[in-house]
Amino acid sequence: VEFRCGGRALGQLREWRDAFQATNRVLSVSALELAPAIERLQGENKTLGRTVRTLQEQLAGHVAADLVTTGARVAGRVIVAQALEGWEAGGLKAIAAAIAATPGGCAAVFSTSQPALAVIARAPDVPVDASAVLKALIARFGGKGGGKPDLAQGGGLTGDLGEIVAAARIALTS
In this structure, are residues 106 and 149 in contact, taking their beta carbons and an 8 Å threshold? Predict the structure, then answer.
């Protein structure tokens, strides 16, 4: 059987060969062990992802507990309005939810990245509408979002982060 290949096809075959050989070198496996090695790495990646999520949830609980102890006390409420560095939407939501699990807990937490992410949450015994607070912030600082009276989240808020946090604090106390 004769195999003929044009210049372009031969060039592409060489690229694939080189990529395949490089992958074998990086993974330190033979060609026959490549697929199982990739499957093993994917499994390890999933396990690490679950571990990271669990640790983030635990850390969020500790951060929330610290914020509750330092939060302002107003009319029987624990008011936490703060920008938190290094947290993404899921972590902010976990922190706000943990604060809202505290009787009288009311939280407005923001990312420090611009445009800012926002999560507003409140305990069942707090008569604040988280969705209305977020809508007021969006009306003033832009962005999008929504939610329910007990939990709302959004993003795209622009402007001075100190002003955003101050506006949230005022909205949570009124």
Answer: no
